[in-house]
Design goal:
mainly alpha, 6 helices
């Protein structure tokens, strides 16, 4: 499979992963009796809708555009590449990413505050706060890796300390 096809396919897979991440945040929030809080519902809903839309438009769209361009003459391939190389960083896809990331910040940031108020271990609420902030650097490495990794470690520590 060539890189452009893999890029599009990976982002299709990532759509399901975004849904699973949202469910995991809700399950973690439920363990703090926070899943029904308005900030959590609004934030995670916004993240789910807008970040998924961003990933579909930017990730899948870029992969498919690059795949379509491979049979074109070199100058036209270069023109397609020039359009898509910075495309997700500007315009409507970028706006979707900003709104989706803001939803994540609200949901996970407010969960960090709820965990702190409820006396969760310091590592849990600090890692949740970091997860909220790291995604603001974008979802590719290192921002997304640090955000989702921090969420995972926070949930793991929470599970191990409440078991």
């Amino acid at each position: 499979m060539d890189a452009s096809t893999w890029f599009a396919a990976f982002h299709v897979i990532q759509l399901a992963l975004i849904g699973l991440v949202a469910v995991s945040v809700l399950l973690l929030a439920d363990s703090f009796r926070y899943a029904s809080a308005w900030a959590m519902r609004l934030g995670i809903g916004t993240f789910l809708v807008f970040f998924s839309a961003y990933d579909a438009v930017a990730g899948i769209g870029t992969g498919l555009a690059m795949r379509s361009a491979r049979d074109l003459p070199a100058p036209q391939q270069e023109a397609i590449f020039d359009v898509v190389k910075d495309w997700p960083g500007f315009g409507a896809p970028f706006a979707l990413a900003i709104v989706g990331t803001a939803g994540w910040l609200v949901a996970v940031g407010s969960l960090a505050l709820a965990a702190r108020r409820q006396g969760a271990p310091r590592a849990v609420w600090i890692l949740l706060a970091l997860a909220a902030v790291f995604l603001m650097a974008g979802h590719p490495f290192p921002g997304g890796t640090l955000a989702f990794g921090s969420l995972f470690v926070a949930a793991l520590i929470h599970e191990l300390t409440t078991a």
